[in-house]
Amino acid sequence: MNNKILEIENLTVSFDGFKALNNLNFSLDAGELRVIIGPNGAGKTTFLDIITGKVQPTEGRVLFKGRNLRRIAEHKIARLGIGRKFQTPRVYLNLTPRENLELSCNRNKNVLATLFSKTPTSEQKTVKGLLETIGLDLKADIPAQLLSHGEKQRLEIGMLVAQSPDLLLVDEPVAGLTDEETAQTGDLLLALAESHSIIVIEHDMEFVRQIARKVTVLHQGSVLCEGNIEEVQNDPRVIEVYLGQPTEAEAHPVQEELV
Ligand SMILES: Nc1ncnc2c1ncn2[C@@H]1O[C@H](COP(=O)(O)OP(=O)(O)OP(=O)(O)O)[C@@H](O)[C@H]1O
User: Fold this and answer.
1) What's the CATH number for 1-81+166-259?
2) CB-defined site of ligand 1, < 6 Å
């Protein structure tokens, strides 16, 4: 039986002739947590854009649970079970964490209906469990604008999980977080990995070390290498890619960590 939740075959994405992704092949097992790293411009964001249907392949294909995603609209792909967390938190700041999660649990209702109708018991349980999972049970009823950046990030991850996606795509979840918040986010992703397939894009190598089992390195739109964190860090091609771009080291400490 094929236990791949995601298969990407010979994928090329050209923007006016420039190949942001170049004959890329990638697969993810159901239940796997994968971290993707790579220097600026390697194609990481485009890689996520292709999976969510924001960008269409020029060549090649993306299969999600065996289904070709070509020409399926973004919102329909989301409904098929792919959830994406962007870098900047997108929570309703005037609502509480509990209300934000209730809204996400029931996307069919609008904001007013969610706030003024009685929440079914099953949903209350889900929200309670999620608040505990994301470590916001004690701050469940204060406006989200009073949360720290890290707490907002965890809330948004919770909102994503509330929609019950099979595959979670998480883009740089610890950018701008303190060390403590970074560790908490890592613990949260590890907990979620027990019941979800997750792809995380990240530059922070300390964080990558905390959560990574298998790492994929992208470079110039293709997979440069894959392996566990030690294999990847010691791979001469990876060292070369990061060493060859001294200005990148200033932008992202990952390169300094690797050398
Ligand atoms: N819409 C677009 N039109 C033209 N070029 C684009 C477009 N989107 C991305 N690119 C180019 O494709 C390449 C890959 O970009 P992408 O944003 O996917 O890289 P990245 O690995 O996410 O980089 P970063 O770490 O800086 O976010 C870059 O050279 C970028 O300039």
Assistant:
1) 3.40.50.300
2) 15, 18, 20, 38, 40-46
